């Protein structure tokens, strides 16, 4: 369980030989799963008898597990996100303001969607929505403004819009720079997005658009970032993690390797082989929100 991404030439069997390792359990999201796939391939090619089983642990819910099975941690992060957002929504109501919430999630909009629908927010923006329109700040801002105007027509002067951070993964550096927001840049000239609140960016652009339209509406930013990580797990994840751990032992006893442990809603343990969900670039494919799914359309 590590954020370190070793290069292929760094792989060696020395550690496994020295410590008589029989099973390597990797725990994490798509990056860790991709590294696990490379390690598993290396061990197999070198005919070294170490099994590798990956545990799908990420709040982003973006590993391609079968039957929409969640990743460990996602339900807990969603629950905390809902708790915070409900408080923000109540503040919006009592102060007659709008809040723009940014939700973690890497490329995928799972967290933003689940939090937004659970709190009945008037606007949810995630990258998966942009199948016909261009994904840029202007269109995102227009969506939020449309929600503000619709509520205003109904006599409602407050609201909350939630935007997935995943939109940044589908924008070029040029589009991000053209936003007019001040960024710091890394040695390669890329905007250092980790140094700035995503909610602040959305909110500044929204404020500018509201002034341009002559609308006297106050809006405030709220970032749902690291608050959703490393928190005590919800009951679902406590049980789920136990089942995943037991599942690792079952797959190990079956002699399987190079796979992700999965547990369906019947409690059945099955392997998801990494080679079957890995793209040509060697990375595990990201599971995005399926906007054609009946639940999403609802």
**Shape descriptor:** elongated
If you average the pLDDT, what whole number results? Answer: 90
* Widest beta sheet: strand line-up: 1-2-7-8
Reading the helices and strands in chain order gives HEHEHEHEHEHHEHEEH
Assign the CATH superfamily of the largest domain: Phosphofructokinase domain
**Number of H/I helices:** 9
Our Rg estimate from Cα atoms comes to 22 Å
Largest sheet: 4 strands, mixed
Instruction: For the record, give the distance between the C-alpha atoms at the N and C termini, rounded to a whole number.
Output: 37 Å
CATH class of the largest domain: Alpha Beta
Indicate how many domains the architecture comprises: 2
Q: How large a portion of the residues is in β-strands, by DSSP E?
A: 5-15%
**Given the helix and strand composition, which structural class is it?**
alpha/beta
In CATH, the topology of the largest domain is named Rossmann fold
Instruction: Pick out the low-confidence regions.
Output: none
- How much helical structure, as a percent, in the residues? 25-40%
The CATH architecture of the largest domain can be named as: 3-Layer(aba) Sandwich
Fold blueprint:
Layout: H1 14-18, E1 23-28, H2 30-45, E2 51-56, H3 74-95, E3 98-103, H4 110-118, E4 123-125, H5 137-153, E5 159-164, H6 173-177, H7 198-212, E6 219-224, H8 235-253, E7 259-263, E8 269-273, H9 294-297
Parallel strand pairs: 1-2, 2-7, 3-5, 3-6, 4-5
Antiparallel strand pairs: 7-8
Account of the protein in words:
By secondary structure, this protein is of the alpha/beta class. The chain has 2 domains: 8-73 and 233-288, Rossmann fold, CATH 3.40.50.450; 82-228, Phosphofructokinase domain (Rossmann fold, 3-Layer(aba) Sandwich), CATH 3.40.50.460. The protein is 38% helix and 14% strand. It is built from 9 helices and 8 strands. The protein has helices at 14-18, 30-45, 74-95, 110-118, 137-153, 173-177, 198-212, 235-253, 294-297, and strands spanning 23-28, 51-56, 98-103, 123-125, 159-164, 219-224, 259-263, 269-273. Strands 1-2-7-8 form a 4-stranded mixed beta sheet. The chain has a 4-stranded parallel beta sheet with strand order 4-5-3-6, with helices on both faces. Helix 3 (74-95) packs across helix 4. The chain is elongated, with a radius of gyration of 22 Å. The mean pLDDT is 90.
